[in-house]
């Protein structure tokens, strides 16, 4: 009993430290967004104002930037759900040549930062004529190695008897996938959607490099541009923009946290 109590206490302390590490920077960002930026007055401590939010929300292109981000987000998330399902199902249920090698290559994509592909990817996008278009920030991110791995593990943990029963009733592979596998994979889909949405919504480097036209900018890039004042970076505007940008993802995670946890832990179950 004492050993269990010590382990539980240690785990609780660790989780508390991690929680504080995540929450404190966000609270500072929120607090800093209400401070007025005055040249020659340091960080403007004590000068609380909503001016930074007025700059962000009152910008004429703000709605357009949000629309651009939503368009890219919907396309990338939809593609990831579809492709990760099909590829994950193939790895989990079918036998084919070089299966293990191909899956190992999928896992290798998780080891290399995507920034290392930035230069060759930019060169390819320019050559095929997609530079400065939404396709430049959609097509390269339609498939993610983590999502494929997650779906493969989750589908592999599902009982095969349900699929065999559907085939015995005359269902084809598409029917089995649609009527049996998809309904059972809803928790995994929630993880894929949230993971992809967060990475795409907060993406800054690739949209900054691949998009030149101001009207096509996504929200993170546009907010960074708005924060550049005549005296340097306006940290109040920057923090206000970051607060506004992070709010949708926080709300989505808050409402779907049960599905996300179920999806992450579901792949660890054995048949």
Structure notes:
This protein has 271 residues and is an all-alpha fold. The chain has a single domain (60-266), classed as MetI-like fold (Orthogonal Bundle), CATH 1.10.3720. 68% of the residues lie in helices and 1% in strands. The protein has helices at residues 2-32, 51-57, 62-93, 99-108, 118-127, 145-156, 160-168, 173-184, 186-201, 205-210, 219-226, 235-255, 257-266; strands at residues 228-229, 232-233. The protein has a two-stranded antiparallel sheet with strand order 1-2. Strand 1 and strand 2 (232-233) form a beta hairpin. Helix 3 (62-93) packs across helix 6 and helix 11 (219-226) packs antiparallel against helix 12 (235-255). The radius of gyration is 23 Å and the shape is globular. The chain starts with a helix and ends in a 5-residue tail after the last helix.
Radius of gyration: 23 Å
Spatial shape: globular
Strand-and-helix sequence, N→C? Answer: HHHHHHHHHHHEEHH
CATH class: Mainly Alpha
* Residue fraction in strands: under 5%
Q: Structural class, please?
A: mainly alpha
* Tally of individual helices: 13
The CATH superfamily is identified as MetI-like
Give the integer mean of the pLDDT values. 84
Number of individual domains? 1
Widest sheet: strand order?
A: 1-2
CATH topology: MetI-like fold
Low-pLDDT segments: 39-44
What is the level-2 CATH architecture name?
A: Orthogonal Bundle
C-alpha end-to-end distance: 32 Å
**Biggest pleated sheet:** 2 strands, antiparallel
- What's the number of extended β-strand segments? 2
Helix coverage percent: 55-70%
